[in-house]
Specification:
Layout lengths: L14 H27 L10 H15 L6 H8 L3 H4 L6 H12 L12 H17 L16 H17 L3 H31 L4 H13 L7 H12 L2 H25 L6
Helix pairs in contact: 2-3, 2-5, 6-7, 6-8, 6-11, 7-8, 8-11, 9-10
Length: 270
């Protein structure tokens, strides 16, 4: 999207953070100005302002390095150059930090503009979301069970539903379609990033594990497992990129069939 998006209102569960920030800035304005004057006079630049984006980026960097279990309020405060209690002026608790991380993962994402073929827009959007999530593979679990309704999440949902409605889906079907494809890409990325991590943490080599499984499947009696045996080469030979592309194509084909069925009934879309 090339146009500057309209700024979304602050989510209600973030309102306490905004009010605390306003009160804090009011209380500390004079003290901050005095400290800036002193540090500038001494030739030392003032400390970088703490913003929601900076908190999210620092938390994401910790997760990238040490996994979700490595993110603690104490560790994040250290990365930001703050005391632990000072960080609580900016975030209420760890859940609030994870809300910021979840939304940060979706920054800059959107389905290609609705002007092109909607099927290509859906495909392009899903591949873009997967690529973005895989850049922060260890943070993917943050999205599971956590609604993506921060500013970036809202823009992604709005753009996605716009593409679907431009194709002819009514608002209800567009909403259902969005959540179906969203759950697919999140679920696929969760499997893609968690399975190798679990095995590697157990000391299992993924390549050796795959070979062992394939040998086991191919050793099964043909009369009992004819379909599994014939499918074994593809089961263990396809890449995750191929599997994801196949799933996307199936979703698009299903949505196309759904849309055509509505048109065949002569239902006028609002």
């Amino acid at each position: 999207m090339t146009d500057e998006p309209t700024r979304a209102p602050t989510p209600p569960w973030w309102s306490n953070r905004e009010s605390r920030k306003a009160e804090r800035l009011e209380r500390r304005r004079d003290r901050h100005s005095a400290r800036e004057s002193q540090t500038t006079a001494a030739g030392v630049p003032p400390r970088e302002a703490v913003t929601q984006d900076r908190v999210a980026d620092a938390a994401l960097a910790v997760i990238d390095a040490d996994g979700l279990e490595g993110l603690t309020v104490r560790r994040l405060a250290h990365e930001l150059g703050l005391g632990t209690m000072t960080l609580y002026w900016y975030v209420r608790n760890k859940d609030e930090i994870l809300d910021l991380v979840s939304d940060r993962l979706l920054a800059g994402l959107g389905f290609p503009p609705a002007g092109q073929d909607w099927r290509d827009s859906v495909r392009g959007g899903l591949h873009a979301v997967r690529a973005a999530l895989l850049r922060h593979a260890r943070a993917v679990p943050v999205l599971v069970g956590r609604g993506s309704f921060g500013p970036n999440g809202l823009q992604l949902i709005e753009g996605s539903i716009a593409v679907l409605r431009s194709a002819g889906f009514d608002p209800d079907d567009a909403a259902d379609a969005y959540f179906t494809i969203s759950n697919f890409v999140t679920g696929f990325c969760t499997f893609e990033t968690s399975a190798p991590n679990s095995l590697s943490q157990s000391g299992v080599d993924m390549k050796d594990y795959g070979q062992m499984l394939r040998q086991y499947i191919e050793s099964l009696p043909l009369e009992g497992y004819p379909n599994l045996r014939v499918a074994a080469p593809r089961i263990f030979g396809a890449s995750l990129d191929e599997r994801f592309a196949f799933g996307v194509d199936c979703l698009v084909a299903g949505l196309e069939a759904k849309l055509q069925a509505v048109r065949d009934k002569g239902v006028t879309q609002p």
